[in-house]
Design brief:
This protein has 44 residues and is mostly helical. Helices cover 45% and strands 0% of the residues. The protein is elongated, with a radius of gyration of 14 Å. It starts with 20 loop residues before the first helix and ends with a helix. It has 1 helix and no strands.
Amino acid sequence: MKIFNDKQVWFVTGSQHLYGPQVLESVAQNSEEIIAGLNSSDDI
């Protein structure tokens, strides 16, 4: 397997304001949890 040390992965999420602030906060929190999991993995 090739190792690419100089590459980046961008994780982009979003929602629409018409769903309300609770949904937007939930999307933000879920995104942060996913990113924290990806960042803590030595396999990625």
